[in-house]
Specification:
alpha/beta, nine-stranded mixed sheet, binds flavin-adenine dinucleotide, FAD/NAD(P)-binding domain, 18 strands
Length: 361
C-alpha cells in the first residue's frame, strides 16, 4: 500500500508520520521549502489537537508554551474583558514559534524508514501518471496541471485585509493569558510564547503597500496594557483570504490542507482544521485496515461527505465571528456592554467557546 503526499508543509509532514505509524509506505514529493529561523510567525494548537499530535511527536510539549486563559476585548474598554475562556482542567492553547515546530517535526519525519523523499518541480508533476502508481495521492500544493484543472471551484472571499505578525519582547511576567482586541480596523491578538515574549497578530484593512514598522509598533503600544519595556522583532505580512474548495477529490487524488480551506486567523484555527482533517482521514484508514479492505478512493468519497459540511460550518462560523465583531467594534460602549450581556447565553458565545475548547461545532 503506497501513498503519495505532494508538498512538505506542516500538514504534509504530520500526515506522513500518521500514515507511516500504520505501516503504510509514503512518498513525499517536495520542492525546496524551508521555514526561516528569523520568521516572526507563530501557531496556536488547541488542546485536543495537541493531544493527537503529542501521540505522534512525544517531545512536542517541550517546544510549546501553554495558554491558560483567553480574553476578548473591545478596543474602547481594555480594562474589562467582554469574554473570558478558562478551565481548571485543560490549557486553552499551546503556542509554538512556527519555524521551531516545523524544524522539530521535519527532523522527526525525514529519516523514517517507510518514507521516500522525492524532490521535483511541483508545477510540472503529471498526476495522471502518478495516480496509477499510487493507491492514494494527497495534494497539499495544487500547483500542477491536473489539480489546477479539477480543484479550482471555490467559495471565496477577500477580507481586503492583511495580517502583520511580530514578536514583542518585554519584562518577565506570568504570561499565560492570550488576548484578542477587536478594533475598527480589525482584530489584534497578543499571544504569549514565553514569560518575556508575546506573538502579535494584527489584522488590518489593506492600504497601498505594507503598513510601515513604526505605525505597527505605535498600534501595538496603543493597545498594550499588559506588558512593560517593549522591543519588537521584524514584521512579516500575509494576505487574508477565505476560501473553501467545492470538490475535495478527483480519481484517487485528494486536495488537502490550507488549499482545501483557508480562513481568517482571528481564532487561530486554520491549521487546527487541517489537524481535524488528518484525524478523520486517519480514523477512516484504520477502519479499512481493521476490516481487511483496500485503501482506495472510496475513502475519499467518505472523507468529502463527512468533512465538507463540517469544514463549511466551521469556516462560516469563524467568518461570522469576524463580521460580528467588525460591526460590534463600531457600536458605542454602552450598547456593546448590553449586547454582550445578552450574548452570554447565546449560540454565538457557545460556538466561540467550543471552537476555542476544540469540541467542534
Ligand atoms: C498570521 C497567521 C496566523 C495564523 N495563526 C494560526 C494559529 O494560531 N493556529 C492555527 O491553527 N492556524 C493559524 N494560521 C493558519 C496556519 O498558518 C496554516 O493553516 C498552516 O500554516 C498551513 O500549513 P500547511 O502545511 O498546510 O500549508 P503551507 O505551509 O502553506 O504549505 C502548503 C503547501 O505549499 C508549499 N509551500 C508553502 N510555502 C512555500 C514556499 N515558500 N516555497 C515552496 N513551497 C511552499 C508546501 O510545501 C506545501 O506543499 C495562521 C495563519 C496566518 C496567516
Amino acid at each position: 500500500m503506497k501513498i503519495c503526499i505532494i508538498g512538505s508543509g506542516l500538514t504534509s509532514l504530520i500526515l506522513a508520520k500518521n500514515l507511516i505509524k500504520k505501516n503504510l509506505y509514503v512518498d513525499i514529493i517536495y520542492e525546496n521549502y524551508q521555514k526561516e529561523p528569523t520568521s516572526a510567525r507563530t501557531i496556536g494548537i488547541t488542546n485536543q489537537n495537541f493531544q493527537f499530535l503529542e501521540n505522534l511527536f512525544p517531545n512536542l510539549k517541550s517546544r510549546s508554551f501553554s495558554i491558560k486563559e483567553i480574553q476578548i476585548f473591545n478596543h474602547n474598554d481594555l480594562d474589562s474583558a467582554l469574554l473570558k475562556f478558562r478551565s481548571n482542567k485543560i490549557n486553552q492553547m499551546y503556542m509554538f514559534k512556527y519555524y521551531e515546530i516545523y524544524n522539530y517535526i521535519i527532523n522527526e519525519v525525514k529519516n523514517l524508514k517507510k518514507l521516500k523523499k522525492i524532490k521535483k518541480n511541483l508545477k510540472i508533476l503529471d498526476l495522471n501518471y502518478l495516480s496509477n502508481k499510487y493507491d492514494l495521492i494527497i495534494d497539499t500544493n495544487l500547483q500542477n496541471k491536473f489539480s489546477k484543472k479539477y480543484f479550482y471551484k471555490k467559495i471565496k472571499k477577500d477580507y481586503f485585509s492583511k495580517a502583520y505578525v511580530t514578536i514583542l519582547y518585554h519584562d518577565k511576567i506570568d504570561n499565560s493569558v492570550a488576548r484578542q482586541i477587536f478594533t475598527k480596523k480589525g482584530p489584534i491578538a497578543f499571544l504569549p510564547i514565553s514569560n518575556d515574549s508575546t506573538s502579535i497578530v494584527i489584522s488590518h484593512k489593506k492600504s497601498i503597500g505594507d503598513l510601515d514598522k513604526s505605525y505597527i509598533e505605535k498600534l501595538i503600544t496603543k493597545y498594550n496594557k499588559f506588558y512593560n519595556n517593549l522591543k519588537f522583532s521584524n514584521i512579516q505580512s500575509f494576505d487574508l483570504k477565505f476560501s473553501l474548495l467545492k470538490s475535495y477529490y478527483s480519481k484517487n487524488i485528494l486536495a488537502f490542507g490550507d488549499k482545501l480551506h483557508q480562513i481568517h486567523p482571528l481564532a487561530g484555527q486554520g491549521f487546527n482544521m487541517n489537524i481535524r482533517d488528518i484525524k478523520y482521514l486517519s480514523k477512516e484508514i484504520d477502519q479499512k485496515i481493521s476490516l481487511g479492505l483496500l485503501i482506495d478512493n472510496t475513502i475519499l468519497e467518505e472523507f468529502e461527505n463527512r468533512r465538507k459540511s463540517n469544514n463549511a460550518v466551521f469556516a462560516g462560523t469563524i467568518d461570522f465571528i469576524y463580521e460580528f465583531f467588525q460591526v460590534e467594534s463600531r457600536a458605542p460602549k454602552f450598547l456593546s456592554k448590553k449586547l454582550f450581556n445578552l450574548l452570554n447565553n447565546s449560540k454565538l458565545l457557545s460556538r466561540y467557546s467550543s471552537i476555542i475548547a476544540d469540541k467542534g461545532i
